[in-house]
Amino acid sequence: MCDDQLLHANRRFSSRGLAILVVLIAGLFAGVLAADETEIFQTLKKRLVADGFESGRIDSIFASPDVAFEKGGVSAYFMHNESKLNYKQFTRPWSIASAKKYMNAHHYALAAAQRKYGVDQEVITAIILVETKLGTYTGNKSVINTLSTLSAMAEASPRQIIWENLPDDERRMSREEFEKKADQKAGWAYRELKAFLAYTEKEKMDPTVIKGSYAGAMGISQFMPSNIGPYGQDGDADGRVDLFVHADAISSIAAYLKNYGWKPGISQKEAFKVVYHYNHSKYYVNTILEIADKLKG
To answer: Which GO terms of type biological process are on file (predicted)?
Structure first.
Protein backbone atom coordinates (compact mmCIF):
# COMPACT_ATOMS: atom_id res chain seq x y z
CA MET A 1 0.00 0.00 0.00
CA CYS A 2 1.46 3.38 -0.98
CA ASP A 3 1.74 6.31 1.43
CA ASP A 4 -1.33 8.06 -0.07
CA GLN A 5 -3.47 4.92 0.26
CA LEU A 6 -2.26 4.42 3.81
CA LEU A 7 -3.13 8.03 4.65
CA HIS A 8 -6.66 7.67 3.23
CA ALA A 9 -7.14 4.41 5.09
CA ASN A 10 -6.11 6.02 8.36
CA ARG A 11 -8.50 8.89 7.75
CA ARG A 12 -11.37 6.50 7.05
CA PHE A 13 -10.54 4.56 10.21
CA SER A 14 -10.33 7.77 12.24
CA SER A 15 -13.70 8.97 10.92
CA ARG A 16 -15.34 5.65 11.64
CA GLY A 17 -13.74 5.46 15.04
CA LEU A 18 -14.90 8.97 15.90
CA ALA A 19 -18.43 8.17 14.74
CA ILE A 20 -18.51 5.03 16.90
CA LEU A 21 -17.17 7.00 19.86
CA VAL A 22 -19.86 9.66 19.43
CA VAL A 23 -22.58 6.99 19.31
CA LEU A 24 -21.22 5.31 22.45
CA ILE A 25 -21.03 8.60 24.35
CA ALA A 26 -24.55 9.57 23.22
CA GLY A 27 -25.84 6.21 24.38
CA LEU A 28 -24.12 6.63 27.72
CA PHE A 29 -25.64 10.05 28.30
CA ALA A 30 -29.05 8.84 27.15
CA GLY A 31 -28.83 6.04 29.70
CA VAL A 32 -27.88 8.50 32.44
CA LEU A 33 -30.76 10.82 31.53
CA ALA A 34 -33.20 7.92 31.41
CA ALA A 35 -32.05 6.78 34.83
CA ASP A 36 -32.37 10.30 36.18
CA GLU A 37 -35.94 10.58 34.88
CA THR A 38 -36.78 7.21 36.40
CA GLU A 39 -35.42 8.31 39.76
CA ILE A 40 -36.94 11.77 39.69
CA PHE A 41 -40.34 10.46 40.83
CA GLN A 42 -39.01 8.29 43.68
CA THR A 43 -39.89 10.74 46.45
CA LEU A 44 -43.27 11.41 44.86
CA LYS A 45 -44.04 7.69 44.75
CA LYS A 46 -43.18 7.35 48.44
CA ARG A 47 -45.50 10.26 49.29
CA LEU A 48 -48.36 8.64 47.38
CA VAL A 49 -47.89 5.30 49.15
CA ALA A 50 -47.68 7.10 52.51
CA ASP A 51 -50.99 8.78 51.66
CA GLY A 52 -52.71 5.45 51.20
CA PHE A 53 -52.20 4.37 47.59
CA GLU A 54 -51.27 0.73 47.10
CA SER A 55 -47.53 0.47 46.45
CA GLY A 56 -47.85 -2.15 43.72
CA ARG A 57 -50.22 0.04 41.72
CA ILE A 58 -48.01 3.10 42.11
CA ASP A 59 -44.90 1.15 41.05
CA SER A 60 -46.76 -0.25 38.04
CA ILE A 61 -48.03 3.15 36.93
CA PHE A 62 -44.68 4.89 37.18
CA ALA A 63 -42.91 1.97 35.50
CA SER A 64 -45.01 2.52 32.38
CA PRO A 65 -43.03 3.76 29.34
CA ASP A 66 -45.76 6.38 28.90
CA VAL A 67 -44.93 8.05 32.22
CA ALA A 68 -42.14 10.62 32.08
CA PHE A 69 -40.96 13.95 33.47
CA GLU A 70 -42.78 16.53 31.32
CA LYS A 71 -40.27 19.36 30.88
CA GLY A 72 -41.81 21.01 27.81
CA GLY A 73 -45.46 20.97 28.79
CA VAL A 74 -44.88 22.15 32.35
CA SER A 75 -42.57 24.93 31.16
CA ALA A 76 -45.39 26.06 28.87
CA TYR A 77 -47.70 26.03 31.90
CA PHE A 78 -45.53 28.67 33.57
CA MET A 79 -45.60 30.74 30.38
CA HIS A 80 -49.38 30.56 29.88
CA ASN A 81 -51.21 33.86 29.43
CA GLU A 82 -55.02 33.74 29.46
CA SER A 83 -55.38 37.20 27.90
CA LYS A 84 -53.65 36.04 24.72
CA LEU A 85 -56.21 33.32 23.99
CA ASN A 86 -58.52 34.06 21.08
CA TYR A 87 -61.92 33.47 22.63
CA LYS A 88 -63.61 35.74 20.10
CA GLN A 89 -63.35 33.03 17.46
CA PHE A 90 -66.13 31.22 19.31
CA THR A 91 -68.61 34.07 18.85
CA ARG A 92 -68.36 34.05 15.04
CA PRO A 93 -71.44 33.00 13.04
CA TRP A 94 -69.90 29.69 11.86
CA SER A 95 -69.01 28.77 15.44
CA ILE A 96 -72.49 29.60 16.74
CA ALA A 97 -73.97 27.52 13.92
CA SER A 98 -71.83 24.55 14.97
CA ALA A 99 -72.95 25.00 18.58
CA LYS A 100 -76.61 24.96 17.52
CA LYS A 101 -76.01 21.70 15.65
CA TYR A 102 -74.43 20.32 18.81
CA MET A 103 -77.50 21.29 20.82
CA ASN A 104 -79.71 19.43 18.35
CA ALA A 105 -77.48 16.36 18.41
CA HIS A 106 -77.39 16.26 22.22
CA HIS A 107 -80.86 17.64 22.88
CA TYR A 108 -81.90 14.86 25.25
CA ALA A 109 -78.84 15.15 27.51
CA LEU A 110 -78.94 18.95 27.56
CA ALA A 111 -82.69 19.08 28.28
CA ALA A 112 -82.33 16.49 31.05
CA ALA A 113 -79.50 18.46 32.67
CA GLN A 114 -81.47 21.69 32.50
CA ARG A 115 -84.50 20.06 34.12
CA LYS A 116 -82.46 18.43 36.88
CA TYR A 117 -80.06 21.27 37.72
CA GLY A 118 -81.84 24.37 36.45
CA VAL A 119 -78.85 25.40 34.32
CA ASP A 120 -79.51 26.87 30.87
CA GLN A 121 -78.47 24.41 28.18
CA GLU A 122 -77.09 27.31 26.14
CA VAL A 123 -74.57 28.07 28.88
CA ILE A 124 -73.56 24.41 29.12
CA THR A 125 -73.06 24.31 25.34
CA ALA A 126 -71.10 27.57 25.38
CA ILE A 127 -68.68 26.12 27.93
CA ILE A 128 -68.19 22.94 25.89
CA LEU A 129 -67.64 25.04 22.77
CA VAL A 130 -64.91 27.15 24.35
CA GLU A 131 -63.31 24.41 26.43
CA THR A 132 -63.02 21.65 23.82
CA LYS A 133 -64.54 22.89 20.55
CA LEU A 134 -67.70 20.90 21.25
CA GLY A 135 -65.74 17.87 22.43
CA THR A 136 -63.55 17.59 19.32
CA TYR A 137 -60.34 18.58 21.09
CA THR A 138 -59.83 17.50 24.70
CA GLY A 139 -56.06 18.02 24.88
CA ASN A 140 -52.93 16.07 23.95
CA LYS A 141 -50.88 16.22 27.14
CA SER A 142 -50.53 13.23 29.45
CA VAL A 143 -52.47 14.14 32.59
CA ILE A 144 -50.36 11.97 34.87
CA ASN A 145 -47.12 13.35 33.41
CA THR A 146 -48.25 16.93 33.88
CA LEU A 147 -49.48 16.47 37.44
CA SER A 148 -46.56 14.26 38.48
CA THR A 149 -44.00 16.72 37.09
CA LEU A 150 -45.64 19.67 38.81
CA SER A 151 -45.90 17.66 42.04
CA ALA A 152 -42.22 16.71 41.86
CA MET A 153 -41.36 20.42 41.84
CA ALA A 154 -41.71 20.33 45.59
CA GLU A 155 -38.06 19.25 45.37
CA ALA A 156 -35.15 21.44 44.25
CA SER A 157 -33.77 19.28 41.44
CA PRO A 158 -36.97 18.93 39.36
CA ARG A 159 -37.71 22.61 39.95
CA GLN A 160 -34.30 23.57 38.59
CA ILE A 161 -34.88 21.49 35.45
CA ILE A 162 -38.11 23.37 34.70
CA TRP A 163 -36.48 26.75 35.39
CA GLU A 164 -33.65 25.98 32.99
CA ASN A 165 -36.14 24.82 30.36
CA LEU A 166 -37.95 28.19 30.24
CA PRO A 167 -36.92 30.08 27.08
CA ASP A 168 -34.63 32.97 28.06
CA ASP A 169 -36.11 35.30 25.47
CA GLU A 170 -39.65 34.75 26.74
CA ARG A 171 -39.09 34.40 30.47
CA ARG A 172 -41.47 36.88 32.07
CA MET A 173 -40.78 36.27 35.73
CA SER A 174 -37.87 36.60 38.09
CA ARG A 175 -36.43 33.59 39.86
CA GLU A 176 -38.14 34.75 43.04
CA GLU A 177 -41.49 34.88 41.25
CA PHE A 178 -40.86 31.47 39.73
CA GLU A 179 -40.05 29.95 43.13
CA LYS A 180 -43.22 31.38 44.64
CA LYS A 181 -45.37 30.03 41.82
CA ALA A 182 -43.59 26.67 41.95
CA ASP A 183 -44.35 26.38 45.68
CA GLN A 184 -48.03 27.05 45.04
CA LYS A 185 -48.36 24.79 42.03
CA ALA A 186 -46.45 21.85 43.50
CA GLY A 187 -48.88 21.59 46.41
CA TRP A 188 -51.90 22.14 44.19
CA ALA A 189 -50.74 19.57 41.62
CA TYR A 190 -50.12 16.92 44.28
CA ARG A 191 -53.73 17.25 45.48
CA GLU A 192 -54.90 16.99 41.87
CA LEU A 193 -52.67 13.97 41.25
CA LYS A 194 -54.16 12.15 44.23
CA ALA A 195 -57.67 12.95 43.00
CA PHE A 196 -56.75 11.75 39.51
CA LEU A 197 -55.36 8.45 40.77
CA ALA A 198 -58.39 7.92 43.01
CA TYR A 199 -60.77 8.67 40.14
CA THR A 200 -59.07 6.37 37.64
CA GLU A 201 -58.93 3.59 40.22
CA LYS A 202 -62.64 3.94 41.01
CA GLU A 203 -63.65 3.95 37.35
CA LYS A 204 -61.10 1.27 36.37
CA MET A 205 -59.31 3.54 33.90
CA ASP A 206 -55.65 3.39 32.88
CA PRO A 207 -54.20 6.69 34.14
CA THR A 208 -51.18 6.49 31.83
CA VAL A 209 -53.20 6.91 28.62
CA ILE A 210 -55.51 9.79 29.56
CA LYS A 211 -54.77 13.04 27.74
CA GLY A 212 -55.81 16.53 28.78
CA SER A 213 -54.78 20.16 28.82
CA TYR A 214 -51.36 21.61 29.64
CA ALA A 215 -52.63 22.05 33.23
CA GLY A 216 -54.13 18.57 33.68
CA ALA A 217 -57.79 19.39 32.95
CA MET A 218 -59.53 16.49 31.26
CA GLY A 219 -62.57 15.43 29.30
CA ILE A 220 -65.16 17.29 27.26
CA SER A 221 -65.86 19.50 30.28
CA GLN A 222 -62.15 20.05 31.06
CA PHE A 223 -62.57 19.32 34.76
CA MET A 224 -59.58 19.24 37.03
CA PRO A 225 -59.53 15.84 38.78
CA SER A 226 -60.48 17.29 42.18
CA ASN A 227 -63.78 18.48 40.69
CA ILE A 228 -64.77 15.06 39.38
CA GLY A 229 -65.51 13.59 42.81
CA PRO A 230 -67.98 16.24 43.99
CA TYR A 231 -69.45 17.27 40.61
CA GLY A 232 -68.91 14.42 38.15
CA GLN A 233 -72.24 12.95 37.05
CA ASP A 234 -73.34 9.77 35.30
CA GLY A 235 -75.45 11.49 32.68
CA ASP A 236 -76.10 8.42 30.53
CA ALA A 237 -76.88 6.15 33.52
CA ASP A 238 -74.34 3.48 32.59
CA GLY A 239 -72.95 3.27 36.12
CA ARG A 240 -69.74 5.21 35.38
CA VAL A 241 -68.60 8.82 35.33
CA ASP A 242 -66.65 9.32 32.11
CA LEU A 243 -66.07 12.94 31.18
CA PHE A 244 -65.11 11.90 27.65
CA VAL A 245 -68.78 10.97 27.17
CA HIS A 246 -71.01 13.90 26.20
CA ALA A 247 -73.95 13.06 28.47
CA ASP A 248 -71.67 12.75 31.52
CA ALA A 249 -69.81 15.96 30.69
CA ILE A 250 -73.06 17.89 30.15
CA SER A 251 -74.55 16.77 33.47
CA SER A 252 -71.26 17.40 35.29
CA ILE A 253 -71.04 21.00 34.04
CA ALA A 254 -74.63 21.59 35.11
CA ALA A 255 -73.98 20.13 38.59
CA TYR A 256 -70.88 22.32 38.95
CA LEU A 257 -72.68 25.53 37.99
CA LYS A 258 -75.66 24.75 40.22
CA ASN A 259 -73.33 24.25 43.16
CA TYR A 260 -71.95 27.75 42.68
CA GLY A 261 -75.35 29.38 42.55
CA TRP A 262 -76.86 29.03 39.09
CA LYS A 263 -80.65 29.04 39.14
CA PRO A 264 -83.44 29.57 36.63
CA GLY A 265 -83.92 33.26 35.83
CA ILE A 266 -80.49 34.21 37.18
CA SER A 267 -79.41 37.81 36.52
CA GLN A 268 -76.50 38.65 34.24
CA LYS A 269 -74.46 39.88 37.20
CA GLU A 270 -75.07 36.69 39.18
CA ALA A 271 -74.41 34.55 36.09
CA PHE A 272 -71.03 36.23 35.68
CA LYS A 273 -70.06 35.33 39.25
CA VAL A 274 -71.08 31.69 38.79
CA VAL A 275 -69.24 31.14 35.49
CA TYR A 276 -66.18 32.88 36.94
CA HIS A 277 -65.80 29.88 39.23
CA TYR A 278 -65.35 27.71 36.13
CA ASN A 279 -62.50 29.85 34.81
CA HIS A 280 -61.08 32.83 36.68
CA SER A 281 -60.90 35.02 33.60
CA LYS A 282 -63.25 37.91 32.90
CA TYR A 283 -62.47 37.52 29.20
CA TYR A 284 -63.57 33.89 29.37
CA VAL A 285 -66.77 34.60 31.32
CA ASN A 286 -67.87 37.42 29.01
CA THR A 287 -67.32 35.15 26.02
CA ILE A 288 -69.39 32.32 27.55
CA LEU A 289 -72.30 34.64 28.29
CA GLU A 290 -72.12 36.22 24.84
CA ILE A 291 -72.23 32.81 23.18
CA ALA A 292 -75.17 31.76 25.35
CA ASP A 293 -77.11 34.87 24.33
CA LYS A 294 -76.42 34.17 20.67
CA LEU A 295 -77.60 30.58 21.06
CA LYS A 296 -80.86 31.79 22.59
CA GLY A 297 -81.37 34.30 19.82
So the answer is: peptidoglycan catabolic process
